Amino acid sequence: MRLDEIAPGAACFVDANIFIYHFTGASEECSDFLNRCEEGAVQGITSANVILEVLHRLMMVEAVTKNIVVPPQILKKLQRQPERIRHLSDYATHVEKIVEMGITIIPLSWDQIMKSQTLRARHGLLVNDSLVIATMLIEGIDALASNDEGFVRVEEITLYRPTDI
């Protein structure tokens, strides 16, 4: 299903790639969806581990965009030259805007971690993806905004995806 098909007033979990596409200007549909969250038309919810993923990925994007490092092996290059990280700050400014969008951020709990193992075994999900689903199930959320193909096989949720990526 498309992002614009999320019903008004619905609670929807927002995955990292939706934020990444918005902040990098890669998807107008993701920006429109996040505007709906900010206006209160959709109740946007995410989790602390998603925020950490967004921080990390935007840091890597900024490092390349500012020519601080050149792909491949962006992470390894930054780890070897930590002084270059000091020149990065836009990624953090972007992430601070997530709360301003009216997105609720759920803290990571031991229950989520434990439930995620069962979900990894059942659906073949990676750790962060299984934490997303665990959080959704614990919080009673069935709508997920994501462009991650791995969520297609999770029957407990309804996946809403951008079509302009």
Question: What features would you describe in this structure?
Answer:
- This protein is an alpha/beta fold and 165 residues long.
- The protein has a single domain (6-54, 91-160), classed as 3-Layer(aba) Sandwich (Rossmann fold).
- Helices cover 50% and strands 11% of the residues.
- The protein is built from seven helices and five strands.
- It has helices spanning 16-23, 28-39, 48-65, 74-80, 90-100, 110-123, 127-139, and strands spanning 11-14, 43-47, 104-106, 143-145, 158-160.
- The chain has a five-stranded parallel sheet, sandwiched between helices.
- Helix 1 (16-23) crosses helix 2 (28-39), helix 3 runs antiparallel to helix 5 and helix 6 (110-123) crosses helix 7.
- The longest helix is centred in the middle third of the chain and has 18 residues, at 48-65.
- The chain starts with 10 loop residues before the first strand and ends in a 5-residue tail after the last strand.
- The model has no long low-confidence stretch (mean pLDDT 97).
Which characteristics define this entry?
165 residues, alpha/beta, Rossmann fold, five-stranded parallel beta sheet, 5 strands, globular
